[in-house]
Write a structure and sequence with these properties.
The structure holds three protein chains of three kinds. Chain A is an alpha/beta fold. Chain A is about 35% helix and about 15% strand. Chain A is built from six helices and six strands. In chain A, strands 3-4-5-6 form a four-stranded parallel beta sheet. Chain A has a two-stranded antiparallel sheet with strand order 1-2. Chain B is of the alpha/beta class. Helices cover about 20% and strands about 20% of the residues of chain B. A five-stranded mixed beta sheet of chain B has the order 1-2-5-4-3. A two-stranded parallel ribbon of chain B has the order 6-7. Classes of the chains: A alpha/beta, B alpha/beta, C mainly alpha.
Chain lengths: ~190, ~200, ~400
């Protein structure tokens, strides 16, 4: 039987997964550790097209600070990013480009549609605007607003963090996920 | 003699006579219409003349009047004389079946994109434009969206219930003309218009 | 600095001469907004550039034919979204010109305060992004703090941060509250407010050797070419032409104010940066003057915040519930059945990027027959291939951000 922790026991633990804890070690399942590590270091790819992009700039700036959630480095290369944040109106001309960027991302990847235009076309119910990016890529979190306040974007980001935290390691190989992608024409 | 709307009108009628019609001063801006074959000559005259000096093209766009048979498309030029601070509006009308208008790109570089936009939206063919292709819409689009007969919304959507939005639905499912709506209803289009849309 | 002289160019027709095609595509970290440029590069030097726009075309002009006047204001927000109050007020001024409404002086001065705040917030973004693109990220972070202050002022007045939908035809929806004036004081404070921060930003950039070497000589344009290309706004003033709509055709009582128009010489990126910087100082001075002028109105006059046009200005809610005429006007305005005169009007305001024009043709119906936006970005973007030709790839990036291209305004 392991001894209970004797030293350094004034430290409070926040949000640790359940596991077996001993002196100087902790044993838990791999999935939980990976979820925890991933959720606190998501590298987003800001796909900012219009007004929501300016609210994203405000979120990145020091007042609302996205960096404290682990996104210090926003990357613009799809190969290196985990989260595709589509912010702003996507027109039909831009749709294939969103899809191309999504295809270039490596698994596991998540998509966040920020703003009314990215979620559903927004106020632009016209011949040239794609009525929501979920016509071309599968979306995980929708953040409504026109534009959403930085707090709302952060809330959406925290929901993505929840999704990342609780995702099973086998999800991306499952049939259900493959069917989802097949529905969008992605192999 | 100071430059004002009367002197401009006088100089233009001296040079072009009664080719220029429809003189008006709505809200302080002198407006006139000219024949479409002479549009470059008029623009050049306004540019070169030492008292007129209209050397800045503020805006170039078109308007569709489906009821004006024979002169459905109007190309409107807004010119500005920066030194004397006078603005001018110059319109040319063209038939929708042969919408050819001479391009002003040789005189004003700013007309390049503006004429492409006008072509994109209304189908006005600018003769002499270096690169007249669509600029704002997708290249594969085969109709000219800003013309009055085309609707605003994407007609291929199946997920939207138009009745809820007060369009189509109860009011004849889009086949009857709704008062105040500029789109032309299906049963009122002439056969030719329907053919030209295909 | 772009050294055009000592670059070794291979002779025409030589076997080694090849150009690389690079797609500075719609998604690129440095293109702020979605523009595509296909560049032909000879090493690092750009031989030719072809631009494609339209990646965010939202058919504003077609939408506007479907909406009564008040419903078009939210559309105008999304044109130049960094300075939406200017677009809103330009639209309301156009409607007022069409309908023949004159606004009282106090309303004009309040409008000027809001428009100049919007101009500051737009130039702030442009200048700090030029800094970011040349490698200096801190300027952006420090200045965005003050952008948050400006947002707070907008929120206090109209409820929204970015896409403000501010004002009505004839004035504002409510008087500026005491809290709004306090926030404006905080913004204008000499020691802890924006002037101190702008001075620090200036110190970091204007005589910074690296910044100067990056931006001087980068993307220059002569005044004559600029006028031919239809440039307006700070880009034209950097080229040497002192054309400003606020001075040429004053609107909203700008003639009562004392300000200068900064003018540059060569029209390169450094001149554009300096012109925008100086315009921010001028805007601060205009705001202070307008503030003092508004404070002079005492008593009953200090409660005026809109013109007396019940036919077009939404009445107070308490009147709608108690008086018959207010109810009728409210109904007519909301349903868009207010009387519209027949006519055509072109009105221009000085947007943050130049002359933002609205050409409105009304046929007496509830919606405009034709509404066209004269968008400055769309018109001066045509000069971009000429500006970058012969320069380096990194200069192309800085030229693009110093032109202050806002995608919403470009594609409308």
């Amino acid at each position: 039987m392991a001894r209970p922790v004797q030293y350094n026991n004034t430290i409070k633990f926040e949000g640790i997964p359940e596991g077996y804890m001993g002196e100087g070690f902790m044993a838990t399942s791999f999935e939980k550790v990976v979820g925890l590590a991933r959720k606190n270091s998501i590298w987003p790819l800001p796909f900012a097209t219009s007004c929501c992009g300016i609210e994203f700039m405000a979120t990145m700036a020091s007042h609302y600070d996205l960096a404290r959630f682990g996104s210090e480095r926003v990357g613009f290369s799809p190969r290196q990013c985990d989260l595709l944040m589509v912010m702003g109106t996507i027109s039909k001309k831009m749709g294939p480009i969103v899809k191309q960027v999504y295809l270039q991302m490596a698994e596991p990847r998540w998509v966040m549609a920020v703003g009314a235009c990215a979620s559903s076309g927004g106020i632009f119910d016209t011949y040239s605007v794609l009525q929501g990016i979920d016509q071309v890529v599968p979306v995980d979190v929708y953040v409504p607003g026109c534009p959403p306040r930085p707090e709302a974007i952060l809330d959406g980001f925290m929901k993505i963090q929840e999704l990342v935290h609780n995702e099973s390691l086998r999800r991306r190989h499952s049939d259900r996920y493959k069917d989802l992608l097949a529905g969008y024409g992605i192999q | 003699m100071s430059l004002n709307n009367e002197t401009i009108q006088q100089k233009l009628t001296e040079k072009f006579g009664d080719q220029l019609t429809d003189w008006g001063v709505p809200y302080g801006m002198l407006t006139f219409t000219g024949p479409k074959e002479e549009n470059l000559k008029i623009l050049q005259f306004l540019f070169d003349d030492e008292t007129l000096k209209f050397r800045f093209l503020t805006d170039l766009q078109a308007v569709h009047y489906p009821d004006n048979k024979g002169a459905e498309l109007a190309v409107v030029y807004h010119l500005h004389n920066l030194t004397d601070n006078i603005r001018l509006r110059f319109k040319v009308f063209t038939d929708i079946k042969t919408p050819d208008v001479y391009s002003a790109t040789a005189l004003y570089q700013s007309a390049n994109f503006m004429e492409r936009e006008t072509f994109d939206f209304y189908g006005v063919n600018f003769v002499g434009h270096p690169n007249l292709i669509r600029v704002l819409n997708v290249d594969e689009m085969d109709y000219f969206p800003m013309r009055k007969e085309f609707p605003l919304e994407d007609q291929t959507r199946i997920d939207k219930d138009d009745e809820m939005f007060g369009r189509g639905g109860m009011q004849g499912f889009g086949t009857e003309k709704v008062a105040g709506d500029a789109t032309i209803a299906e049963d009122q289009k002439t056969e030719q218009e329907r053919q030209s849309e295909l | 600095m772009s050294e055009h002289n000592d670059h070794i160019l291979l002779p025409e027709g030589s076997l080694e001469k090849q150009t690389t095609t690079l797609n500075l595509g719609p998604t690129h970290p440095a293109t702020h907004g979605v523009f595509q440029n296909i560049l032909e590069l000879d090493g690092e030097r750009i031989m030719k550039a072809t631009s494609t726009v339209g990646y965010i075309h939202r058919a504003f002009e077609k939408i506007a034919e479907r909406r009564p006047l008040y419903q078009i204001t939210p559309l105008t927000d999304r044109l130049n979204y960094c300075s939406s109050p200017i677009n809103n007020m330009g639209w309301h001024l156009t409607c007022e010109k069409l309908l023949g409404v004159t606004t009282p002086k106090r309303v004009d001065y309040m409008r000027i305060i809001i428009m100049e705040l919007a101009r500051i917030s737009d130039h702030l973004i442009c200048n700090s992004i030029v800094g970011v693109d040349s490698g200096a990220y801190s300027g952006f972070l420090y200045l965005m703090q003050f952008r948050e202050l400006i947002y707070e002022i907008y929120e206090e007045i109209c409820g929204s941060r970015l896409t403000t939908n501010i004002g009505r035809i004839g004035g504002f929806e409510r008087n500026f509250t005491a809290v709004a004036w306090e926030k404006l004081d905080k913004f204008l404070d000499e020691k802890t407010g924006y002037p101190a921060q702008l001075r620090e930003f200036e110190k970091l950039f204007t005589r910074n050797r690296i910044f100067m070497e990056r931006t001087i000589g980068c993307g220059p344009i002569s005044a004559e070419r600029a006028l031919n290309y239809g440039f307006t706004g700070p880009n034209l003033r950097a080229a040497g032409v002192d054309y400003d709509v606020r001075v040429h055709s004053p609107y909203s009582s700008y003639e009562d104010f004392d300000f200068t128009i900064p003018v540059g010489k060569t029209g390169d990126c450094y001149d554009r940066f300096l012109v925008r910087n100086e315009e921010m100082w001028q805007s601060l001075s205009i705001i202070k003057q307008a503030y003092a002028k508004v404070k002079e109105f005492k008593g009953a006059e200090s409660e005026i915040y809109h013109a007396d046009v019940p036919a077009y200005y939404l009445p107070e809610k308490k009147d709608v519930y108690t008086k018959m005429e207010a109810l009728i006007y409210h109904f007519k305005i909301i349903m868009g059945e207010a009387e519209m005169p027949v006519g055509e009007v072109y009105n221009a305001v000085e947007g943050a990027n130049g002359e933002l024009g609205y050409y409105l043709i009304s046929d007496g119906g509830r919606t405009p027959y034709r509404l066209h936006f004269r968008r400055p970005c769309f018109i001066y973007y045509q000069a971009y291939p000429e500006l970058v030709q012969g320069g380096m790839l990194s200069d192309a990036v800085i030229t693009m951000s110093s032109l202050n291209l806002i995608a919403g305004e470009l594609d409308a």
